TrEMBL record:
Residue ranges occupied by any ParB-like N-terminal domain in the UniProt entry: 66-169
GO cellular component: chromosome
Designated name of the protein: Nuclease
Entries under SMART domains matching the protein: ParB
Amino acid sequence: MAKRRRLNPPRLDYFRGPDAESSPLGLPGSVPPPISRIAGDAAAAGALREVAEEMTAARNDGRFLLRLPLDRIDETWLVRDRIGTDPEALENLMSSLRSHGQRNPIEVTEIAPDRYGLISGWRRLTALRRLHADLAGEPEQARFATVLALPRQPETAEDAYVAMVEENEIRLGLSYFERARIAAKAVEAGVFETEKLALRKLYASASRAKRSKIGSFLRLYHLLQDHLRFASALPERLGLALARALDADPALGGRIAGLLDKAAPDSAEQEQALLQATLKKASPPQTKTRQGAAAGDEIRPGIVLRTQRPASDGAEGKVTLTGKGLTPEMLEKLRHWLSEC
């Protein structure tokens, strides 16, 4: 009987060279076709491109925090809405930053390569710069050499001013004089065509009554900006009373400016006391009326205003205007003003 010959299985690596690559599945001789390599490279490139686009979008949308050196930020890029800051409040902010670090980022926009204009966060930036200077030579100084910032891309200067004002209105309200000042400055810078438009845009979320009050302080700003030493501390009620008095007597502004310059008050309290005394002397006497009628104030020559019943608890109010100054032209102006305020 013939002896059977044992057959060996075929060798799959017979035609492979010593430097041939192994297959992804561990099978020798199984090399991926070129088309699969091209598809894999394209998929990887597409994924990287998608990640880069998402990061760019996140940065543009303000979802990407930057840590910027303090000297790369220009806080004068916009006219600031704050005239100054309370030294005690700034010291408290510095103490908080030193103890807990910066919790809220500032907002900036890139104005040149590696240069950023400040939109909001002036107090935080000022406090960080003060800390960095005060800690010169100490190991802790490096903690305050940079600032956390959210990059923004406002489409127009108008958008940048609105963002600055809104941020301060939310975090720490401005005084009425400061609100009026930034509206006037924005017009001077050519951001808005008129002060009326500036008030509407900058304080769009405010009530009409509030915008009207800011408009009243605009008159004080134009007449007394160079004479008030503590303008940001001017109370609402005193400022509105001054505005009414200036409407009734346009020459009063010059007299008040002269008194302020001569007195040179050293504190907000002294300045306000001087304004109140001047206002009291300038107030027109109440006009006598027929028996039984309410007394009125001559708000300007020839026009007397009587408040007979202020609105309260749902009840309607009632005011009356009388006088020879109520010409058809004046009534038309009054009607237009009431429709806009």
